[in-house]
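If it is no trouble, can you show me the amino acids of a protein and the tokens describing how it folds?
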Amino acid sequence: MKLMIDIGGAIKTSVAAIGDNYRPDQLSSKLVAVVTNLKPRKVFGVESEVMILAALDDSITSILQPDKQVSAGSKVT
């Protein structure tokens, strides 16, 4: 799945294998944790600039997200 993610002043592309567990409408406006200090790379022919953090348990993928409202671009510590 190709996602456009606001990281606080910039929109970055992420390609993630989460389509079996999430529909695009479930992700719209959702806060997610991402890694931004990676070298961009092509995934399925699309340049992916950030990586979404998720937990994988057997066939279930769960996106990691803040439990409180935070601003786009907030740092993960």
Q: What stands out?
A: The mean pLDDT is 93. The radius of gyration is 12 Å.
